[in-house]
């Protein structure tokens, strides 16, 4: 059976199985297929139930009896179940599935990871939209006293329909109230160098800066990327500050055009005065 390539999150619309027929409307899980996303401990499985596709996240067979990893998976479920945001993958339940063991049940999305999406050379307006939605999702997560801690292109899915962000994989997320599996985490190249000493929202802001660089938003936004990746003492203190900086950067081209227009008018008036 061929492994699915891009099924790592989902969208409530794209999960409907349109051509399956009435006979496929089962209460039990059918057509289970393992996905090929690499993970140290988790296994992602695409399946169908009630005429829709879903995504199941469980432990690899060798780890299903390991108490620590079972607690880690349960922590991830409890983290995701507390989140309701259009740009974060929706978690619908925690179930024991035959042959898989305990599973997180998530919606399925027809989409691709951010790095693959960028290979299609999306328009600048689309890249700005993705940046804005990613910032909104992080601001919401931080408002829940939570830090994602593993922001990278593979964990930012972009839907095929509408090019909307779906943030996934909260396996390394940390909450103020959690005492399970705390410690250094993240992916090299996107992980805050200071994350090993302290977990806070600044960790995600650093990773966001790395992602914004890959979006190539333009000259006006380069300073934002640099400040996101500064040492923590000089970094933006929160997502509201990042959002305000993005808003100012968006206004810069309009201000530049206005300045040029004013200069042109002044030059024309001076020319008229010289003539007379």
Helix segment count?
6
Secondary-structure-based class equals alpha+beta
C-alpha end-to-end distance? 86 Å
Proportion in β-strands: 15-25%
What's the average pLDDT?
A: 84
Report the major sheet. Answer: 5 strands, antiparallel
Order of helices and strands: EEEHEEEHHEEEEHHH
Could you estimate the helical fraction of the residues in percent?
A: 25-40%
Folded structure, characterized:
The chain is an alpha+beta fold. It has 6 helices and 10 strands. A 5-stranded antiparallel beta sheet has the order 1-2-3-5-4, with helices on one face. It has a 3-stranded antiparallel beta sheet with strand order 6-8-9. Strands 7-10 form a two-stranded antiparallel sheet.
Layout of secondary structure:
Blueprint: E1 30-34, E2 42-49, E3 52-59, H1 67-81, E4 91-97, E5 101-107, E6 111-113, H2 114-118, H3 124-143, E7 146-147, E8 156-159, E9 165-167, E10 174-175, H4 201-215, H5 222-228, H6 239-275
Antiparallel strand pairs: 1-2, 2-3, 3-5, 4-5, 6-8, 7-10, 8-9
Helix pairs in contact: 3-4, 3-6, 4-5
What keyword list fits this structure?
36% helix; 276 residues; disordered N terminus; 10 strands; single chain; three-stranded antiparallel sheet; alpha+beta; five-stranded antiparallel sheet; elongated
Q: Quick summary of this structure?
A:
The protein has helices at 67-81, 114-118, 124-143, 201-215, 222-228, 239-275; strands spanning 30-34, 42-49, 52-59, 91-97, 101-107, 111-113, 146-147, 156-159, 165-167, 174-175. It is α+β, with helices and mostly antiparallel strands and 276 residues long. The strands form 3 sheets. Strands 1-2-3-5-4 form a 5-stranded antiparallel beta sheet, with helices on one face. It has a 3-stranded antiparallel beta sheet with strand order 6-8-9. Strands 7-10 form a two-stranded antiparallel ribbon.
């Amino acid at each position: 059976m061929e492994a699915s390539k891009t099924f790592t999150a989902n969208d409530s619309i794209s999960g409907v199985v349109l051509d399956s027929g009435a006979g496929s409307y089962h209460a039990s899980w059918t057509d289970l297929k393992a996905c090929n996303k690499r993970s140290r401990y988790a296994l992602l499985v695409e399946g169908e139930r009630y005429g829709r596709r879903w995504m199941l996240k469980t432990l690899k067979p060798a780890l299903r009896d390991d108490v620590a990893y079972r607690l880690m998976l349960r922590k991830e479920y409890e983290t995701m179940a507390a989140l309701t945001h259009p740009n974060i993958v929706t978690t619908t339940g925690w179930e024991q599935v035959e042959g898989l063991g305990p599973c997180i049940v998530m919606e399925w999305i027809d989409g691709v990871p951010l790095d693959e999406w960028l290979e299609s050379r999306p328009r600048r307006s689309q890249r700005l939209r993705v940046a804005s939605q990613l910032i909104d999702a992080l601001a919401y997560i931080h408002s829940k006293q939570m830090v994602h801690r593993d922001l990278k292109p593979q964990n930012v899915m972009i839907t095929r329909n509408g090019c909307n962000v779906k943030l996934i994989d909260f396996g390394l997320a940390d909450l103020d109230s959690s005492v399970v599996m705390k410690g250094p985490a993240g992916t090299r190249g996107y992980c805050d160098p200071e994350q090993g000493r302290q977990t806070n929202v600044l960790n995600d802001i650093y990773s966001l800066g790395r992602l914004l660089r890959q979006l190539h938003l333009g000259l006006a936004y380069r300073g934002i990327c640099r400040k996101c990746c500064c040492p923590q003492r000089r970094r933006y203190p929160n997502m509201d500050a990042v959002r305000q900086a993005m808003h100012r950067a968006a206004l810069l081209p309009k201000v530049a055009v206005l300045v040029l227009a004013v200069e042109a008018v002044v030059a024309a008036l001076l020319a008229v005065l010289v003539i007379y």
